Hints:
By secondary structure, this protein is mainly β. Helix content is 12%, strand content 36%. The protein contains two helices and eleven strands; from the N terminus they run H-E-E-E-H-E-E-E-E-E-E-E-E. The strands form three sheets. It has a four-stranded antiparallel beta sheet with strand order 4-11-9-6, with no helix packed on it.
Amino acid sequence: MLKIHEIREIIKLIDQSSINEFKLETEGAKVTLRKSSGTETVVVSQPVVQAPVAAPVAVAPVAAAPVVTEAPKAAPAVAVAEDANLHKIVSPMVGTFYSAPEPGKPAYVQAGDKVNASKVVCIVEAMKLFNEIEAEVNGEIVKVLVEDGQLVEYGQPLFLVKPE
Length: 164
């Protein structure tokens, strides 16, 4: 059975992502989240056999944040050509990026570190599950693209690696 804080965490992650619909079925509980035109709908159903469940979760409409765009800055052509030769390690899921195995410990990798394909480079935490992300290629970490504790999207680049 899902706890209210777990449902709130899911709502927060979905709200901050580009996902429009999310369904989860676990141990008899079903959660469906849908976003459309600035509102969010939450449907939670659990088996009737269990003890009485607290009142349904009410979610207020989420106002769409104004989009502020800046004129793109002209990047040097050399940097674009350089990026084309680099491998991007991307997030396989929506979650929170952690650069170290636990707070106070050194980061798995930093810019300039050599890695092999099976080297763990970070953790992406989603719904209290800590997923180790591996380098996927042999090479050198050129740049870390996200900050520790930052929410990341599915497919978002996390690291740039110069393959060997």
